[in-house]
Amino acid sequence: MHHLAKIRRGTVLLVLVLLTAGAVSGYVLLNPRRTWEQTPTYIIDDRGQASISDNDGGLGATIAAITSNDAWNGAGAGTVIEATAGSVAGFTLGDNVPMLNFEDPTGACDGSCLAATFTGFYVTSGRGRNRTTYIVDADIVTNTAYDWTSESEPDGCSGEFFIEGVQVHEIGHALGLGHTSVAGATMYPSVAACDNGPATIAADDIAGIVDLYGSSGGGGGGGGSCTLGQPGDSCTSNSQCCSGKCRGPNGNKTCR
Ligand SMILES: [Zn+2]
C-alpha cells in the first residue's frame, strides 16, 4: 500500500536528514517496474466525498484533475489514465476493476494517511529482456477522518485537504510511481492542508511517467518534438531515449 500523508514536523525533519546524507534524489519507480498494458479507466465513486460542499462532493473536480493535461496525461506519454463516474458498491481489491473510493472500506488508511493506493496487483510474464510486468488493479481509498475540499468549493480552504492534488498523487502510484525526494513534486510523500500543488505535476513527475510509458513525441496533444535518442541510437539509460526504452546487452544498448 502506498499513501499520501499529511505533513507533520517529524516527516519534514526526516526528509532534511535524508537529503544531507546524500540519499538518491528524483523519481522512484515501484519495484518491480511495472505499467498498465492498456490505459486503465478508473471508476470514480459517484457518491462523492461527504465533506466537500461543491455541487457533487468533489466528483467532477476529481475526474477533471486526474485526467487533466496538468497531470499525468499531459506528461508527453499520451493518455495514461481515463476516468468515469460510477458505483463502487462492488469495491474489491485485486478484482482487476480499478476504482477510486471516496471512503475507505478497508480501514487501512488511518492516522496521517490521507488516501492510499493498493499497488500489489500485477502479473509478470516472459524471461530476460522479454520479461514484462503489468499492473492489473490498483484501487484507491480515501480517509474520511479529514475535512476535504475542491477548487470548486465556494467557501475557500481552512484546515482542509484538496481532493484534486491528493488523488493525482494516488493515481501516480496507480501508474507505477513511488515516492520522490523532490519537494514540490506531485509524488513527494506528504502535503500540507490547503496546498493543491500536487494537482499539477512537476518536471520530476514527468520524467518518471515518461520513463514508464515512453514519450509520444508530439502526438495526442503533448506538443513539441523529442530531442532525445531515436530508435537505433546508442544509449546507456532509458532517460536518453524518446521512447523511454533503452534496451540491449550492456555496452551495446540502443533506443527502441
Ligand atoms: Zn504516496
What is the terminal separation in angstroms?
A: 32 Å
Radius of gyration over alpha carbons? 18 Å
Query: Could you say which overall geometry the principal axes of the C-alpha atoms support?
Result: globular
Specify the CATH architecture of the largest domain. Answer: 3-Layer(aba) Sandwich
The helix content is: 10-25%
Order of helices and strands: EHEEHEEEEEEEEHEHEE
What hetero molecules are in the model?
zinc ion
Classified in CATH, the superfamily of the largest domain is Collagenase (Catalytic Domain)
Number of domains: 2
Low-confidence stretches at least 5 residues in length (pLDDT < 50)?
A: 8-24, 218-224
Q: Largest sheet, order of strands side by side?
A: 9-6-1-12
The number of helices is 4
What features would you highlight for this structure?
256 residues, alpha/beta, Collagenase (Catalytic Domain), 2 domains, four-stranded mixed β-sheet, three-stranded mixed β-sheet, 4 helices, 14 strands, 17% helix, 19% strand, globular, binds zinc ion
